[in-house]
């Protein structure tokens, strides 16, 4: 039985290198990102914002582990409120959804 990973920030630099490596090891990889194009190496791509509880619930359903790479950077010119929302609130929403779905393995 293969491991199913949820990869947040799936359109980012690290994720675009990590997803193919996981696939090469026989893993299933579900990607989520609010921007960008889905990679060919993903089994499923969900476009949306991690502050949305319904999206997070759908994304974590059936996964064995979450590799949380999504983040906003301070040098993107975000306001403090946007930075807080995109990092803390999104992570909190994802963790709450994962807890509801019984996800116990996380990498941040």
Biggest sheet: strands, sense, closure? 5 strands, parallel
Specify the CATH homologous superfamily: NAD(P)-binding Rossmann-like Domain
The secondary-structure element order is EHEEHEHE
* Helix and strand composition category: alpha/beta
Task: Please give a structural write-up.
- The structure is a single chain.
- With 108 residues, the chain is α/β, with parallel strands linked by helices.
- It has a single domain, classed as NAD(P)-binding Rossmann-like Domain (Rossmann fold), CATH 3.40.50.720.
- 39% of the residues lie in helices and 20% in strands.
- It has 3 helices and 5 strands; from the N terminus they run E-H-E-E-H-E-H-E.
- The chain has helices at residues 13-24, 53-60, 80-101, and strands at residues 4-8, 28-33, 44-47, 65-68, 105-107.
- Strands 3-2-1-4-5 form a 5-stranded parallel beta sheet, with helices on both faces.
- Helix 1 links the parallel strand 1 and strand 2.
- Helix 2 (53-60) packs across helix 3.
- The model has no long low-confidence stretch (mean pLDDT 94).
What's the arrangement of secondary structure elements?
Elements: E1 4-8, H1 13-24, E2 28-33, E3 44-47, H2 53-60, E4 65-68, H3 80-101, E5 105-107
Parallel strand pairs: 1-2, 1-4, 2-3, 4-5
Helix pairs in contact: 2-3
